[in-house]
């Protein structure tokens, strides 16, 4: 083993002994850390993908109140499921949760699988989530490596390898798994995530002064922590122009159900078309749709960022004389209680709009 390898080996070996005690002392009190029930850990990990901890707390509690068991989730009405997910985005996460719940009920008598390799076969569960569940709930020495963990490791070891390369992730996972403790596997997994979330943070300066790895971290010693991690393969997001119609007829608002495939599949939407239209063109389109536009109240520009695409939207608020039959016309209460309208559209329904509904 050369000197560099020896140094890496030493750094990885110190991680569990330093991070587990630190985690036990400093871990945030989060609703999904109150127990290690696989369903709870699974749900929280899925909700936390691409979503901030603070935003997830309320959703997590409401979801479990309505679907307290895997069987309840498997039997849930899809519209109700999506309504509970409204605002969290990436709705396929909710659909996959239900698919996996159905699989657990039909193929495993309702018992959550207890091994990493079996967990990995469930819909919507990748290596990261399977590792988090297996180590947290079943004390299996499997690492859960995501962008947070890769950032922490690349700083501690001062690695300039591109963390978006699958080979780098694979190597970090293997090295971590070689040093997993015999017990407290879940605490080790959580400690790495927690360090990335509250100390070795992704934006702004890392909080090295309160970091348990401060004395050993190579990037900190060399003052290079803010240059790391290296991410070279960032893809440009596609930009798409859209025109959105916020249509009101009396006290009703027009909504439509989206197609069952593709982006925001099966959810509700405000009527919209691709391309940016002028106010005049927009009114002509509405006439063709048979809503008899009476007056254009105002115009608003909004954007919504998905993982791979950004919608740049021009919204037209229009009073209509007729309810076009191919749209659903719903009142404010229905919109609140049973229609799952994604944030991309819901952001148009502001205070001003609701005042007259
Ligand atoms: S010392 Fe600083 S850069 Fe190194 S792991 Fe800790 S917070 Fe991150």
From TrEMBL:
Instruction: Give the reaction(s) catalysed.
Output: Hydrolyzes free adenine bases from 7,8-dihydro-8-oxoguanine:adenine mismatched double-stranded DNA, leaving an apurinic site
- Whether Metal-binding counts among this entry's keywords is yes
What is the main EC category here?
hydrolase
Q: Name one Pfam family in it.
A: HHH
Explain how, and how many, cofactor molecules are bound: Binds 1 [4Fe-4S] cluster.
Q: Which GO terms describe its biological process?
A: base-excision repair; mismatch repair
List, alphabetically, the InterPro entries matched: A/G_AdeGlyc_MutY (IPR005760), DNA_glycosylase (IPR011257), HhH-GPD_domain (IPR003265), HhH_base_excis_C (IPR023170), HhH_motif (IPR000445), MIG/MutY (IPR044298), MutY_C (IPR029119), NUDIX_hydrolase-like_dom_sf (IPR015797)
Q: Which cofactor does it need?
A: [4Fe-4S] cluster
Does the entry feature the keyword Metal-binding, yes or no?
A: yes
Gene3D superfamilies the UniProt entry points to: Helix-hairpin-Helix base-excision DNA repair enzymes (C-terminal) (1.10.1670.10), Hypothetical protein, domain 2 (1.10.340.30), Nucleoside Triphosphate Pyrophosphohydrolase (3.90.79.10)
EC number(s) from the headed UniProt entry: 3.2.2.31
Q: Which NCBIfam families match?
A: mutY (TIGR01084)
Which family, according to UniProt?
Answer: Belongs to the Nth/MutY family.
User: Main role?
Assistant: Adenine glycosylase active on G-A mispairs. MutY also corrects error-prone DNA synthesis past GO lesions which are due to the oxidatively damaged form of guanine: 7,8-dihydro-8-oxoguanine (8-oxo-dGTP).
Q: Could you tell me which PANTHER family the record lists for this protein?
A: ADENINE DNA GLYCOSYLASE
Protein name stated in the entry? Adenine DNA glycosylase
What organism is this sequence from?
Zhenpiania hominis
Q: The organism's lineage? A: Bacteria, Bacillati, Bacillota, Clostridia, Peptostreptococcales
